[in-house]
Amino acid sequence: MNPVLAPATSASLIRGEVANLPLYDPGADPAEVAALSGSRRVIKLSNNENPYGLSPAVAEAIRLSVAGGVSRYPDPTGKRLAEAIGQSLDVPAERVVLGNGSENLLELLCQAVLDPGDLVVTQAPGFSLHEIFPRVMGARVVKVPVTAAFGFDAAAWRDALAAGPKLVFLANPCNPTGVMLSADELEQVVAGLPESALLVLDEAYGEFARANPEYPDGLAALRALDRPWIVLRTFSKAYGLAGVRVGYGIASDAALIQALDRVRTPYNVNQPAQDAAIAALGDHEHLANTVRRTGLEIARVTDRLRGAGLCVVPSWTNFLFIDTGCRSDWVAQELHRAGIIVKAWREPGYENFIRASLSTPEENDVFVRCLTEICAKGQL
Ligand SMILES: *Cc1c(COP(=O)(O)O)cnc(C)c1O
């Protein structure tokens, strides 16, 4: 006989892992900040987007794709885009996987690989989805702290890797610090990888860092590794296509891609996104312009904020991690009143930090002026 069960409620149905998850923080809603500040134009620096927008060639590709009709399902294999990516990187298309943003690939990797209780290693401060997706699967997440100077802590990484993680999430450059790992540091992670581990190298900001000759090319660094690995990249940041949702991974072998293909929803990348990404790969000039202008602004704004006495972490991305010297929740709120959205950092030890992506020179000047005024007031 069946035991008498209490009737289900939504709360009783939710898995413990899910009920206890932190909610992803997308930053403040621009419409709300517009209402609060009374400004018609909100300066949105919270999501590391590209202020210069997408390439005109990509806009045209999207227009044509939509005009061609969206009543059919997209190509479930993303064949043309996977081939274009493979060709641009000299990798066979069967080792390329496409995602609805590279976030989708982080999620699929966790679903394909992690059993409850498995260990995952990543960095702190870090990208929240490197923690949230493993926890959904019931995995344990150990976050390796950065050094006091926001750098790579070789000894702490060695210990964490020795504990036998199944999955290692490493972002280079790192989010939220913007710090770039050197070839030597990346090599230390690779050398310390236990037999059990799959290395996920998240290069969401790699296009910006590649302007630095010291930036290690992840694909080249991992090519000889006799262990499974995957390098993740995205069209959301330097290519200016965050709203379109398309990212990709290049894996050590086709078997890993086939596993992800089994887990993913079959039409995870829509056709306008596939067509946009193909066009984006072809417009080298737009990418180079974005990277050049972003680099100039990163250097200029870093100098100005440091000149005003703020601690700014050296960044090889399109954002800055800034110690405001006061509670970042309060700073962010004050910035909202001025119509500027940044992300107040909440990880333990970093409650005085904000992460702000840069925009055009004009908007960045407004940001610098408001932030330095607010910090001067807050530090009194
Ligand atoms: C933005 C970001 C991503 C992915 O963004 P998608 O829009 O999903 O491609 C992945 N990793 C890090 C560290 C990021 O900052």
TrEMBL record:
Entry GO MF terms: histidinol-phosphate transaminase activity
Domain Aminotransferase class I/classII large, chain residue ranges per copy: 41-369
Cofactor: pyridoxal 5'-phosphate
Catalytic activity from the UniProt record: L-histidinol phosphate + 2-oxoglutarate = 3-(imidazol-4-yl)-2-oxopropyl phosphate + L-glutamate
N6-(pyridoxal phosphate)lysine PTM positions: 237
Pfam families: Aminotran_1_2 (PF00155)
Alphabetical UniProt keywords: Amino-acid biosynthesis, Aminotransferase, Histidine biosynthesis, Pyridoxal phosphate, Transferase
Enzyme nomenclature, EC number: 2.6.1.9
Pathway: Amino-acid biosynthesis; L-histidine biosynthesis; L-histidine from 5-phospho-alpha-D-ribose 1-diphosphate: step 7/9
Gene3D superfamilies: Aspartate Aminotransferase, domain 1, Type I PLP-dependent aspartate aminotransferase-like (Major domain)
Keyword Transferase: yes
InterPro entries per UniProt: Aminotrans_II_pyridoxalP_BS, Aminotransferase_I/II_large, HisP_aminotrans, HistidinolP_aminotransfase, PyrdxlP-dep_Trfase, PyrdxlP-dep_Trfase_major, PyrdxlP-dep_Trfase_small
Assembly and oligomerization: Homodimer.
Family statement drawn from the similarity comment of this UniProt entry: Belongs to the class-II pyridoxal-phosphate-dependent aminotransferase family. Histidinol-phosphate aminotransferase subfamily.
This protein's name: Histidinol-phosphate aminotransferase
Gene: hisC
